[in-house]
Fold this sequence. Notes:
A: 315 residues, mainly alpha, 12 helices, globular, B: 388 residues, ABC transporter involved in vitamin B12 uptake, BtuC, 77% helix
Amino acid sequence: MEELTFLAIFVGVVHSGLRLATPYLYAALGEMLGQRSGVLNLGVEGIMLMGAFSGFYVTLTYSAPWLGVITALIVGGLMGLIMAFVSITLQAEQGISGIGLYLFGLGLSSLLFKTMLGSVEGVDGFSEIHFCVTESFCLADIPVFGEIFLRHSIIVYMAYALVPIMWYILNKTTWGLNIRAVGQNPKAADSLGVSVTGVRYACVIIGSALAGLGGASLSISLLNIFQEGMTNGLGFIAVALVYFGSWTPVGVLLGALLFSLINALQLWAQVLDLNIPSDVAVMLPYLLTVIALALPFRRMAKPAALTRPFQRGEN
Amino acid sequence: MRRLRRFSIQLLPIIALIGALIIGAVILYLQDVNVREAYTAMAVGAFGTKNGMADTLVKSIPLLFVALGIVIAYRGGVINIGAEGQLIMGALATTYFGVAYGDSLGPWIMIPMLILLGTAAGFVWGAIPGILKARLAVNEILTTIMLNQVAIQIAFFLLRGPMLDPDQVAQGTNVPQSARLPKVADLPRMRVLSQLFGFDQSTKDLGMADGWRKEFVGLFIDSSRLHTGLLVAILMAIVVWIFMWRTTIGYRIRAVGQNPAAARYAGINVQRYTVLALALSGALAGMAGAIEIVGLHHRMFEPTAVSAGYGFSGIVAALFGKLHPFGAIPASLLFGGLLVGGDKMQRAVQVPNVMITVLLGIIVLFVVSSDLWARRRMEKLEKEEVSG
């Protein structure tokens, strides 16, 4: 293997770190939306798998990645509709119903993969944009800056664009005010004429659609392949990131970056053949999640009505 | 009449199962599968023959242990999604000491000791999220899920390194698995136990040539993989029931689960009993892992193959059994059958056995969704009883 300079390694790690944050961002920002309205959706992992499969299948069949994105959004939204119906209308225990949705998505995505495709194959998904100005000159070739920031697919940039959008919606619009009110004090929101049920349905469905897109970002942009259970716990980490990020878009972004950079470091450590057992490296993100959740610094309080079903007329 | 209506509420899980099977039938139908053939293969495969029934029972053993643990956690007001990892840690501890010291003592001391070691490992692995929740208010659902992955990687690390089977090293194959435990440390099969009580003939010699009696009795006296872990599991169901409903500690765990504020007011140390509930829940999952090793596998290999999703299907069994130890017994049997039946269905009509995971998910959704309806109904009935 050719000698890699420190700079090249640095560029490599940061570039893949930024790239790998994509599924975390979609899933965690979507989950945050649901949690801000008071619903803990633990089914993210299953929703991502369904999004990953449906997006992959459509992209493979029609060679149209955008159609794949739309499919993943719709499938994710439908999974969200199930979660919303069960946890909002039927007021089921959210921790357990999320596990039910996870098992459903895990099983169904594997089942459909086995019966409809059967074998692992690659797909032409979204490719990296190199921002070429002329035939021979691309902005992506600018040393360091271009190599790190200007070599990603549109799906990656969209994930980062979602951070300010989410912040704006939550903090600067009436809609965001309603969401926060419903999550903090549903009774008060209800008395002011805000439909608690409606807001929660919308948040869970949109959040799940984003989780579906997060899954598809793996299968049609980052890896361009589908495997059974390919998210491998990523959806659960996304839920943890919402806690870690104190229910704010910027906090979620920082958490996602931290995790994906560590992931990238671990991948590069294996590429460079550093003497770290791969098991220990793979374990790191999960162990880090536990430690991060346990860090004693006090954060913004979580939405007061999180996991509490709302029933008009009850206290 | 009133009793009948009360009874109908108790039957809700059955209705959930039927609902899930109907949705499953629709999914199968959409895949151009002969639904009747598929379900028949499933039912007959799981419960119809001696071998199928033996497999079902073998799978229901770890399910019952895990489900009992889930019952304790749930009744204590915490949700334990970490049984998968706790089971792996239990299996690892048992394997490690079994391989190292398995033949140093007689089986009557060694086997219980190995099981206890696995149980203790599960206890510790469950206590970690318990302490994090009690001391730092960390959401136990998330930590238990994360610790599953940590346990899996610890297992791989040990199985590729310190615990790797010397035979694998010698052959140069390096499949991540441990050496076999010494034969002395094998949990006896049911057949051996039957022989101990004088049934040293086969069913054929007993004159049971055909019919269900031969199949049923044959389970316990003819050769099969069915081991005495089954009896340990049923015994534990009784122990858990006595512990939770007939002892002060169990009462306190349930009090904390029902209403932590009231429990605190009554002078109960809520934090301590939260930790205890999760640790005991982990202990039972660890015991499941230990029994799987001494009773069935006799060595540790790929951790996810040993845990085999029992950590999740055990939750479904616990919910299905109405979160009661005695409800968990038939529920574990049923879901053990579903897992075996899924494999049989795969072979008969080529429906991937992940279909069972889909069904499990739907059953969970149905059971938790019907809670509200059942509660309302129960309240209405009680009101009627008071006024009437």
